[in-house]
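User: I'm writing a tutorial on reading structure tokens. Could you give me a worked example: one chain, its sequence, then its tokens, then a sentence or two explaining what the tokens reveal?
Assistant: Sure. Here is the example chain.
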Amino acid sequence: MNKLLYLLSAATVSLTLASCSLDADDITEATTDKFPTTEEDATASLAGVYNNLNQVAATPQESFLYVSMLASDDNLGGGGTNDKLMQAEDLLCNYNQNMTEQFYKDRYQGISRANILIEALPKITSLSDDVRNTDLGEALFLRAFYHYELASMYGNVPLMTSATGKVVKQGDVKTLWGQILQDFYQATQLLPAKRRNDGHVDKYTAEGMLARAWLFYTGMYCNGTELKDLVSTTYNPLTEVDLPDGTKLTKKMVSDLVDDCVNNSGYSLVSDYRNLWAYTNRCTVEDYDYTKGKGLKWVENDQTQASDSNPESMFAIKFNKLASWSTTIGYANGYALHFGMRGGQDYANTFPFGQGWGAGPVAPNLVKEWKADEPNDMRLEASIQDVNKLPAYKKGGWADFVQETDYYEKKISPISAKDGNKYICCFEDLMYGDKGGLSGGYGGNMQLDNIHDLVLLRFADVLLMQSELEENVSGINKVRARAGLAPIASYSLKALQNERRHELAFEGVRWNDIRRWHIAAQALEAQNNQPVYYCGKEAKNTAHNGGYAARYNATAGFFKMPENQISLGSVEQNPGWDNSSEYQGW
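And here are its predicted structure tokens:
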């Protein structure tokens, strides 16, 4: 599980570093003349910056990762009739004035913490150059990542590069993205050329995330910055970007860094794709018909501390046993809970998949298109569970399930286990329960005991980005070989698009992919009239507020700015979020 020591020190940090929600004149209590001033302070401060990953996980339904799954053409909204936020995120509609404000505020808190550390590091004379550069590289990486998610979610958000007590306003979106790319690039230069397995980001993670940010910005904004440019179907990505420090970043520079990651990082593909996902854990694998007797072994079996057991995971949100409803809910994998099977059914009915809120039912159009594009792809069944193949799945989910389909994703889901004749809600209760115990004890707590990692970047993604940047089949064919598929002879954008969709399904990248390729409106329309169930009865997925394409063309996929932030004067509302965007229910 690669539990990080920084989680243990984060509570101390949170008492020292103030929040940054852009909603007060004094948004930082801590100042760099008082904290951090020692190497121990710097370590604690960096822990607080990392801890923002878990802070956002406390309300996953508002996060960019969650939205990026539901808004894409691979998942519907789901949830119950009262879970209107889930459905609104799928339909690109509004649900209340501040529908995702907690994520907005949390990410700016992470940025504020990063800025405090970045400003303080040159003043801490007790630090060696190596330690200072490494801490600075990690802080720049995280500041870039937090800005990247905000800019992907909302578009032109305020850029914060200093710990200031003033309300920061929107600027030029080109400057915002230039700073994101510059921070990632500087991290690649500051971090040592050594793969880390202690949960901290390294040089190669920075190279991979630089490529992801580069591909999104240079594609999404290739035609300009106006709404009409962003929703144009013309795709001719930029090849160089001006950075705020007066230098340029070029496609060749990014490509060279990706080559460095591929050739020198030590990251590699796991031999069997299925071993990446928690359903192959040792407590479950031999009881699940799909995996039984196939010699599969989850890469994170029994890992309760830093380990190099998963050579493919480059950046992940770590979870642990310390989750509590009162203080540290973000230490539990709330994404697993949300994407779990709805309805409170007996675990025997849905084994090995656990219970949850039924977010993100797999869109039937994905299954249909995947079978047409790659009928022999083992990753289809490795990634998607047909509920008709479960022991006794019952449709309807508490009699209120909206947009239910015949399919659930397997990658994020909670995974149950059997102990003799008893079903345990989360395999973690068996795997780790005898090493300190989880919150629910034997039998488990379905809402707190999911603690398997949520991987944000893995090596397969880097290989595919390498092929895309260099327009060759090298990375594509390595990924295909692992899936048991024949190599392709020549590169095409369509082949690359299919490979990314199949390899990285339900990992939060599809949404930005279809936007940057300028195919989003057309792709989203495939969800119309797909077979679904409403409260257990057969129905069709129907258009709302004009339909998927209309809502995308009205917004370019940028979500509503929180009204509270508009009231402060820091941002203006994004296009497409007037009264016509209100979601009234299914």
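What the tokens reveal: The beta strands are 240-242, 248-250, 313-317, 384-386, 407-409, 417-419, 422-424, 454-458, 531-534, 537-540. The longest strand covers residues 313-317.
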